[in-house]
Structures are given as C-alpha cells and as structure tokens.
Write a structure and sequence with these properties.
By secondary structure, the chain is an alpha+beta fold. It contains 9 helices and 7 strands; from the N terminus they run H-H-H-H-H-E-H-E-E-H-E-E-H-E-E-H. A 5-stranded mixed beta sheet has the order 2-4-5-7-6, with helices on one face. Strands 1-3 form a two-stranded antiparallel ribbon. A hairpin with a 3-residue loop joins strand 6 and strand 7 (335-341). Helix 3 (77-106) packs antiparallel against helix 4 (117-189) and helix 6 (219-237) packs parallel to helix 7 (260-271). The protein is rod-shaped, with a radius of gyration of 38 Å.
Length: 361
C-alpha cells in the first residue's frame, strides 16, 4: 500500500472517537426504544455496524487521500473539493443504504424497514462525512501551506547564503591583488622590506582564510587581524600611516562580518594621500550602543584611485543579508567615519549562530 494512501493520525483518531457515537445513532434509528430493551442488539448489531463502519471509513479515507495525492497543490483545492463531493457522497449513501436494506432483507434481530429510516440514516451519514471530510481537507491544506512556507524560507536562506558566500569570495582576490601590487613595488625599491612583507603576508593570508570561512568573526579576532594587516601597511608606507585602536574588552565576543576592518582600512589607504609630513590617521574604537567606529582624517588623492566599489558596498550588503540595521557612513569634510553595529553572540560556545542558521537551512 502506498504511504500516501494510508490514514493520517487525525483520520484514525477521528474515526475511533466518532464511530461509537455513529454506531449508537444508527442502531437507535433501526430499533428505536428496542435498543434499550434487547441485549442482543448490543451484542450483535453494534459490532456488525462497527465493522461495516471500518470498511466504509477506510474506503472513503483511501478515496480522499488518493485525490489529495493526485491533486496535491493548494491551488488545486477547488478540484479536490469537487471530486470529493462527487465521489464520497454517493459512496456514503451506498454504505448507509447497505446497512438498512441488509437488515431489512434478513430481518436481522427483527428489523423491518420503516418510513424515513433511510432518510434519517442518510442525514447522519452526510453530516458525519461533511464534518470529517472538511476537517481532513482543512488539515491537508494547512499542512501543505506549512510545507510551502518552509520550502520558501529554505530557498530564501539558500539564496542569501549563496549571495553572502559570493560577497566573501570577492574579498580574497581583491585583497591579494593589492598586496601583490605592493610587493611588486617593494621588490624594486627595497628587497629586504619585500622579504619581510612577503613573510608577513603569508601569515596574514593564512589568518584571512581561516576567518573568512564562517562569514562573521568576533571583534577580538578582527582586531587581532587588523593589527597584522597594519603591520603590512607600515612595511610599505612607514610613518605615513598611523593607527590607534581602543576596544572595550566587553565587546570582544561580539560579531561582525569577517574582514570588515581590513576592507575599511584598505579603502582608506586607497583613496587618501599618505605622507610622513601629513600622516593618514586611522582610529578604531568602540562606543556605547554596541557599535564599532572606524574614523580617518580626509586627505583625498588629487587623482582618484580606480574603484570597483567592493569595499563599502560589500560591507553594507553583508549587514543587509544578516538583517542587521545600523551600518552608517558619515563625512564632514575633515573626517570620514563608518559605524559598524556589533552583533550579540548569544551562543559563542557553539559557533556563530547567524551563519549556522543560514547553513543549516
């Protein structure tokens, strides 16, 4: 037997709870007050009608489940209802008529068909079928709607994760390309610095790969990484670039998109002039309200550096995908400031919950 055609728990439960009542009502229609006077009715008629009821119920459930199997979509509800009406009502009528005509022909326990007996029996059968067939159909539609919502949410999460992964993948080539440009310049200018830079780059890139896998990273890890990245900048630019970091330790376990600080610092260096006499100063600090701020003095380059807009748009897109508001970009002519909302990590011991939700779905 196909699994799709088997009775559901609701169908079994409804039959077990309702069939004794139906059995009693039909026997009362058949025997009137004799029901309370003849023990034989309880001994023979009750079990017999119960067995007929099992067969009728099982057949009707099979028909209904088959129709639902053939027309499973929510948008096919009208079709299912039409088919249920045209199949189950005749089937129910035949089942009720079978009981009365069989009892009459056999004069079972002295029964003789009386006027209106079949009409009353039909009314009982129709009422019961109307209630339970409607209940089963509503239950079916609700379950399909739940499944549809779950499927849509799963597809949405998969799409978001794919988009998030795409954003992550934009970072590594971008970062590596710029580092190779720097290394190329150093090789011609200072081979010793180039060697130091290459050693530091290998350490930083290994760290970058580890922390970019999850999509989000703790503040502590991001700060540790940006200190290493700042070492690369110092090797290339010396005192022309300065960085100060003031982080409240209570924010260490908070989360933010991986490599956010590296992207921001890289963006600052790319679009501003660097000179020992007028150093570019980058400040990274936390503020009340679970925010991390990256601020720099504005020293716009005379000739604008080419930009593919990976940096700021990438970060904003990540926050949007994580459904985390509060990302801000501010500029007042003297300073350029980016405010990053920090994400509370309520299950740090189990990993990063935001991405775990996306990956599991």
């Amino acid at each position: 037997m196909k699994t799709e055609l088997k009775p559901t728990r609701l169908q079994v439960f409804s039959f077990i709870t309702s069939m004794p009542v139906i059995d009693f009502v039909l026997n009362y229609i058949l025997y009137d007050e004799g029901l309370f006077q003849k023990q034989s009715i309880w001994l023979y008629s009750f079990p017999l009608i119960f067995l007929i009821g099992i067969g009728s119920w099982r057949s009707q459930v099979g028909i209904q489940n088959f129709i639902q199997y053939k027309f499973p979509a929510v948008k096919q509800t009208r079709t299912r209802v039409l088919l249920l009406s045209t199949t189950l009502i005749p089937f129910m009528s035949a089942s009720v008529a079978l009981i009365f005509f069989t009892y009459n022909n056999l004069h079972f326990l002295g029964y003789t068909l009386k006027p209106n007996d079949i009409e009353y029996g039909m009314l009982v059968g129709f009422s019961v079928n109307l209630i339970f067939v409607t209940l089963y159909e509503v239950d079916y539609v609700v379950e399909r709607l739940k499944e549809t919502m779950i499927e849509k949410e799963s597809l949405k999460q998969q799409a978001l994760q794919h988009e998030f992964d795409s954003l992550k993948n934009q970072v590594n080539p971008h970062f590596l390309f710029n580092c190779f440009n720097t290394l190329s310049s150093l090789i011609t200018e200072d081979k010793e610095k180039a060697e130091v830079f290459l050693n530091e780059l290998s350490k930083v890139y290994r760290y970058l790969l580890r922390n970019n896998e999850d999509g989000v990273s703790t503040v502590e890890n991001e700060i540790r990484f940006i200190r290493s990245y700042y070492g690369l900048l110092k090797t290339r630019h010396g005192d022309a670039v300065q960085m100060t970091i003031e982080i409240d330790k209570r924010y260490n376990p908070y989360l933010l998109p991986s490599l956010t600080l590296q992207l921001l610092v890289e963006n600052v260096v790319k679009h501003n002039q660097l000179a020992k006499s007028q150093p570019l100063v980058i400040e990274i600090f936390t503020t009340a309200g679970n925010k991390l701020v990256v601020n720099n003095n504005l020293q716009r380059r005379t000739v604008k550096a080419p930009s593919n807009k990976v940096g700021l748009e990438n970060i904003k897109a990540k926050y949007d995908l994580l459904n985390q508001p509060g990302f801000q970009i501010m500029e007042d002519g003297k300073n350029f400031t980016v405010v990053l909302p920090l994400i509370w990590n309520n299950s740090a011991e189990n990993g990063h919950p935001l991405l775990k939700e996306n990956k599991n779905n």
